[in-house]
Design brief:
The chain has 21 helices and 23 strands. With 744 residues, it is an alpha+beta fold. The strands form six sheets. Strands 1, 2, 3, 4, 5, 6, 7 and 8 form an eight-stranded mixed beta sheet that branches.
Length: 744
Amino acid sequence: MTNQSNKRTSDDISNEWINSGVSPAKRRTKTNAKPSQGTQNQTTQPPPSNNFSPVVARTGTGRTTANLSSNAKSETTSRRNEAKNIRSKDFREDIPDLVNVAKPRTPSVQKAATTIIENAAKSIKKTVARRPKRNTTNYIREWTEWNTTASRDEHKLEPMFDEFVKVVAQHVKQYFAAHPDSLSAPKGWSPRLLLPSANHDFKPFDSDTKVRIDGALGFTDVDSDVHSMDLKGYAAVLAVLELKWHRSRTNEAYDQNIDYTRNIFACQHSRRFGWGLTGCGSEVRAMLYLPDFVLASTAMELSTDAGRRAFVKFLVYWSLCEEDQLGYDPTIRRAEGGGCYEIDCYDREEQTITKMYSNTLVLSASRVLGRHTRCYVAFPTIEDATSEPTDFTSKEARVIKDAWAQSATDDSKSDDRNEVMHLDHVRDIFNGKDLGFPYVMSDACGDVMLRSGDGFWVDSTKTILSALSDESRKMCLAEDQAKLPNRIHRRLCMTPVGEPLRTLKSEAELVRVLLDAMRCHMALVNDCKLLHRDISDNNILVVRQSGVARGLLIDLDNAVRLDVDRGDGRRVRTGTLPFMSLNNLRGVEHECTALDDWESFLYLICWLATFGINRDDRTSEKDSQDFAINNWRYGSSIEMIACTKADHMHSADSFKVHILENFKEEYELLKDLARELHSALFLHESCKGAVQTKDEVVAGLFTRKRTVVKGKDPLTERMAFKEDILSSLRGLVDDVDEYLTNPQ
């Protein structure tokens, strides 16, 4: 019936991440989650030997699940607003066949699912028809008869939900007890019991906010007893449950479910996509979380036989589907006999799989939507991965980047914006030579491949949604979309291993690191014909060579080949908001060039010089709240942010008053570097300024003639002098390098 060696419960998955020390949430204790009430099969994994505590997870916005502001109430409000924004823009409701994403793939398992659904639905129908005995409660019947005029207490729905789920679990258990060896199932497949959390209205221990969730679903071995599970944290949760007393509050339930599910991605580092559940009165909906949007099923109305059967179908499919259909990644798993994790790395060119080992997570996914980028420090052996302390400078150390990248095509081989292809190209051009600065060298890089039966397939959102009908996929389109976006799950194994900028100890170290990144950028443009397009604090790392801090420019996710695309043919904004160029913010029609990336370098310097290099010299939120530079991140619209930034850049006086005067006093090098960069980019003698002016009609007072004075765009005019400006920027880098090498 099952493959015992491949059985994993949601508690097992939780404890794997908790005990390894790679959960990014701030934990107050390191106690293991208790196993659910059941048989001896419901055990947890022993803790790995390495208790490494990773650096705080980072994203471009600075608002991550592990990086809170000091004002918890403000952060909670911000997250809820973000959830509402997702619901208003990236949410699709009433997808009729959403359940098919979890439909078992193997015919024999489908047949078993059909039988279990039929048996469970009949049993629940009898339960609904049966009047409860004296001094007993028929929770399922009460749920189907939920009267919103009699009760507005959503907590009364909790035992009703629990009982429904446990009845279905009992039928799953009974079927496999009666048919232990009847299925021809895929390798590694094992049925599971879906069970509700024993706690309701509780705060998961691995959350970094005080927000409480109504409930959750977990899963355990099919041989276990049917009891509620003691799910203490998000790391053990399959799906968050949000309950409301009436269907009129469905949108509020959606918002909260979206808000809380971000914690599942943050705490489960092998989670590819997520599921959620809402129960509003007697109406239940399932939710599916993908990188570009959130989907919700049609309403399953439990007062009807059809609605109850539809909910049973979801629960049974989740119980019998393959692990990847729940959203987990089977290519990241606990290494046998070692306190670390085994990660499959696929090489596109060699068509081989390399196994790497890690228990060190340095970047966690912490958003509901987006690339869900995670980074691990990994080694080719378990011994290296579990050594204490972890040796980041070892020649064997690798960075594994795992992300869902947007694909310009449905085929990685024809996608000229494929980061794997970019890294292969850089490797071929640079060829391991000493260029005077560190640069990324790729090892095993390629698309993540998942197994189904005897074959493999590329993990992508297109593949996940292939289970839906054509009509359902059309319902996923936004109004301005003709085709669904496709993201391909890619995994890159690279060297060297870097540290975040906040580990720098001085202004001089930062300037040296920035110069290395600038030199690497110039080499990418001139030699590799690659435009980076996402210069940010997250994409420049520190590599220490013989104790000296050097800069490493990383992340070619948004890069384009200049010799193929001639700039950004898609006319889309890319990058991290505070560091985006004016052209990027404005969405102008002419091509993006290296000058846009140089603007980003300038904005990054201004940001770090204003707010501080590291935690020791960080400017407090209170002291910086009135700084003009904050408007580079917050504004009523991106267009308004662009106008504000243009005002700041328009002249030397404006740049000084709005930006330079808020630099930390001790940062003289950064102030001078920022001033020189600004002068080169915005004060060229033939194209000064940054503010666009519109055409203006001027009427003569005496002649009464109307004259049209043409408006100007200094950035458009700047294009004619691009090479001259780039030459001056190269000269500036040489001058600063000479100063650092031979300070006067």
